[in-house]
C-alpha cells in the first residue's frame, strides 16, 4: 500500500499569473510486525510513474451554443489521464504535464516528497460558480502501477482574476531600464527587482483605496426621494460598501429603502440559429431599513470573500451593481408631527409606490492571503493506492 499526500503550503487561493506550489508525498506505511514476507521483493512497493498538471474545467448550461463551448477547448491529448477522467465539463485550460518520477520503489517506512510548481496562465478565466457557466480549477495528480489502472488525486484550487490593465502596466514598469550613473558601492544592499505580480497588486491597492465621493439625486415623477452619496466606486473582496442617504432634500416621503449587492451574469445562447443574450441576476448581501421620518441614514453592505470579481471571457461576462428599492408615498397624513403634538396617530392605510434603481460598481480581487484567512478549506488531500 502507498499513500499519496498533496499539500498546498500557501493556501488554496491564487491570482491568475501566479505560481502554484504543491508538495506531493509518496509513503509506504510500515507493515505489522507479525507479517512475514515471502520474498525479498515483497517488502517493496513500486509505482511506474506519476505526473501533475493544472486543469480548468468549464461547465455550461445546455442551452448555450455549442460553438461557444468549443472556444479555447483543450484536451488531455497524448496523456494517460485522458482515459481516466470521467468529468463531464469541457477542458478550458490544461497546463503541460510534469513528470514527477518514473519507477519509484519504496521500502516500508520510506517516504519521497516532490515539489510541483506551475504558473497559472495570465489569460485564464477565474474560478466561478454561476447559474449559466461554471469554471473549476484542480491540480490533477496521476500515478499508476504496472499493469494497473491510473489513479487520480484531484486538489481543488481557487483562481482570482487580475485586471489585464494592472498586469500590462506592471510588466511595462519591470521592462524599463535605467543606466546607473553612480559608481557601484559594495557596501550597499542590492535592490531586488520587483515582480510584475507585486506591482499589479500595488496598482490594485491604489485604485481601490482612492476615495472619490459621488452624489446621486434620486427622483420619481412626484418629486425628490433622497440624495445618495457613495464614497468610492471601486472595491476589493472583503470590503464594506459604505454610503449615506440624505432625506432633508426630499419633497415626498420615503418609507423604507432596500439595497442589494448583485452580480449580472450574461452569456450568449442560440435560439433558432439566432444569437441572443441570456442574463441571470444573483443577489448576495442586502441592507434594509425603515426610514420614515429620518433625516439621514447610512448604508453598510459587506462584500463576501467567496464571490468572484468582475471578469469577461468569450463565453460569459460578470458585472456588479447595487440595486435600490425605494418605497415612497405622497400621503399627507405622513407629515412629521411637531413636538407639541401629543395625540398624533399614523394613518391606517397608506398608498405606496415602489421604484427601483441600479448603480454599477467595480469589484476587484484582493490578496490571496486575505481570502485564505476568511474562507477556511482543506489544503491537505490524500489518496491510498492498494
Walkthrough of the structure:
This protein is mostly beta strands and 386 residues long. The protein is 10% helix and 48% strand. The protein folds into 3 domains: 2-161 and 369-385, Immunoglobulin-like, CATH 2.60.40; 162-174 and 195-211, no CATH class; 212-333 and 350-364, Immunoglobulin-like. The chain contains 4 helices and 21 strands. The strands form 4 sheets. Strands 2, 4, 5, 6, 8, 9 and 10 form a 7-stranded mixed sheet that branches. The longest helix is centred in the middle third of the chain and has 14 residues, at 196-209.
How much of the residues is beta strand, in percent? over 45%
Reading the helices and strands in chain order gives EEEEHEEEEEEHHEEEEEEEEEEHE
Arithmetic mean of pLDDT: 82
Number of strands: 21
**Spans of at least 5 consecutive residues with low confidence:** 67-78, 169-181
Overall CATH architecture of the largest domain: Sandwich
Helix content: under 10%
Separation of the first and last Cα atoms: 5 Å
Approximate shape: elongated
How much is the radius of gyration in Å?
Answer: 29 Å
Domains (count): 3
Helical run tally: 4
Biggest pleated sheet: 7 strands, mixed
What is the CATH T-level topology of the largest domain?
A: Immunoglobulin-like
What quaternary form is this? Answer: single chain
Structural class based on helices, strands and sheet pairing: mainly beta
For the record, the CATH class of the largest domain is: Mainly Beta
Summarize this structure as a short list of keywords or feature phrases:
mainly beta, elongated, six-stranded mixed sheet, 386 residues, Immunoglobulin-like, 3 domains, seven-stranded mixed sheet, Rgp1, 4 helices, RAB6A-GEF complex partner protein 2
